[in-house]
Amino acid sequence: MEQYIMKGGNPLKGEVTISGAKNAALGILAASIMTDETVTLENLPNVRDIRVLLQAIQEIGARVEYVDTNTVKINGSNISSISIDYEFIRKIRASYYLLGALLGKYRKSQVALPGGCNIGSRPIDQHIKGFKALGAEVRIEQGMIATEAESLVGTHIYMDVVSVGATINVMMAAAMAEGKSIIENAAKEPHIVDVANFLNSMGANIKGAGTDVIRVQGVEKLHGTEYSIIPDQIEAGTFMCMAAATKGDVLIKNVIPKHLEAISAKLVEMGATVEEYDDAVRVVGIEDRLGPTHIKTLPYPGFPTDMQPQFATLLALSEGSSIVTESIFENRFKYVDELTRMGAKITVEGNTAFIEGVEGFSGAKVSAPDLRAGAALVMAGLAAEGITTVDQIEFIQRGYEAFEDKLTALGAVIERIPVDDEKAVKKFELKVG
Ligand code: UD1
């Protein structure tokens, strides 16, 4: 087990290159086994969630060959099982994308039932509703969810809640159904569009991804392709917040500025400077404290829930009173107690956090409760006075590629050391003075 140790106070300065989007890559990896031909994926982020899903598809017989750290070739012609073990779903919920992918290709699939997770209970009723509407029988037994269909037939599906996961899962199954499907009230996140573009590059016929209504004309077969995954909107947003929190000046490269609009708009509203280029954004902090704002998380193009902890942390260092309302997941303020230990003044009532900005944080020992909150705590540590340790960094490693390397290159003083290694802590303290 490892932890991050850091000395705060250095403004982040320089350039950082953003990796491929984890959440797009998860859908795309699952979809890539829907053909018997070889698929080459580029700009795949080298993070734990991706490595686990690659293992899961290898386990059922797909061939996976790494061309380099961020490029893989996948061949699903030798798949011998349609059943995904609990071991994988326990490590990464998105293994359930194999339900839709295998159902589309083989007309049956079986995946251990995902439980809740650290950010709340997470139902999958909309996934099930979509599969059933396409004609599949869906059974839940012995901790597994199993789908089976004699034939999958295109149909009209109305999603009762806007769900990224359900939209992707149902879109994959519909891509190989007979006839036309219409998915209404679909999620519009950039990764939905990326998965649809990827499927289309394999010969699928999907229109309208990125709008509320996705139209899928089923095809009999999909073919091999080469595809490069879009940049990670949330990794980019995290570095944007870090630049502002440390009063730095960072050019964030390999991004699609359009995907960052909700994030850029809030930073500008708070007083930071955001410059947009074709495929980069530059964020410049200010010497004074930033100003307050109110934030409510919403499905895209609204403010992303995956940026909520980073912004709450930034607002906790800004002037005045701010309110952050979490409307997607019920349990996403677990990091607040940790931030409080660093000096933040935040009270949580239900799904709302009331924040009174403070002048600064002081370093402390804190624990990452989940992926994005973990990144927010690292950001707090980099802005704080003194030394901070963040443990449970396995969560952070799920979704941030080479996190400490990228931060170090921007001037952060941060290292990865074993948990409970007092000697390593002392050594770091001596080194940084
Ligand atoms: C995805 C992202 C996650 C992000 C979230 C919201 C991946 C791998 N993860 O998660 O990082 O925080 O989108 O942008 O892409 N819901 C139901 N029934 C369902 C499905 C969802 O009620 O069948 C609810 C959920 O409880 C939640 C809301 O819908 O309140 C949105 O969830 P959803 O968009 O499905 O999130 P995920 O796909 O799990």
Defining traits:
433 residues; UDP-n-acetylglucosamine1-carboxyvinyl-transferase, Chain; 24 strands; four-stranded mixed sheet; 2 domains; binds uridine-diphosphate-N-acetylglucosamine; single chain; alpha/beta
Question: Could you provide a short overview of the structure?
Answer:
The chain is built from 15 helices and 24 strands. The chain has 433 residues and is α/β, with parallel strands linked by helices. The strands form six sheets. It has a four-stranded mixed sheet with strand order 22-23-1-24, with helices on both faces. It has a four-stranded mixed sheet with strand order 2-15-17-16. Strands 4-5-3-14 form a four-stranded mixed sheet, with helices on one face.
Structure description:
- The chain is α/β, with parallel strands linked by helices and 433 residues long.
- The chain folds into 2 domains: 2-19 and 231-432, Alpha-beta prism (UDP-n-acetylglucosamine1-carboxyvinyl-transferase, Chain), CATH 3.65.10; 22-228, Enolpyruvate transferase domain (UDP-n-acetylglucosamine1-carboxyvinyl-transferase, Chain, Alpha-beta prism), CATH 3.65.10.10.
- The protein is 33% helix and 25% strand.
- The chain has helices at 22-31, 48-59, 86-91, 97-106, 125-133, 164-175, 190-201, 233-245, 261-270, 308-316, 336-341, 371-383, 394-397, 403-409, 422-432; strands spanning 2-7, 13-17, 38-42, 63-68, 71-75, 83-84, 108-112, 137-141, 144-148, 156-158, 180-184, 205-207, 214-217, 225-228, 249-253, 273-276, 280-284, 294-296, 321-325, 345-349, 352-356, 365-367, 387-391, 413-418.
- Strands 22-23-1-24 form a 4-stranded mixed sheet, with helices on both faces. A 4-stranded mixed sheet has the order 2-15-17-16. The chain has a 4-stranded mixed sheet with strand order 4-5-3-14, covered by helices on one side.
- Helix 6 runs parallel beside helix 7 (190-201).
- It is globular and about 65 Å long.
- The two termini are 26 Å apart.
- 51% of the residues are buried.
- The mean pLDDT is 96.
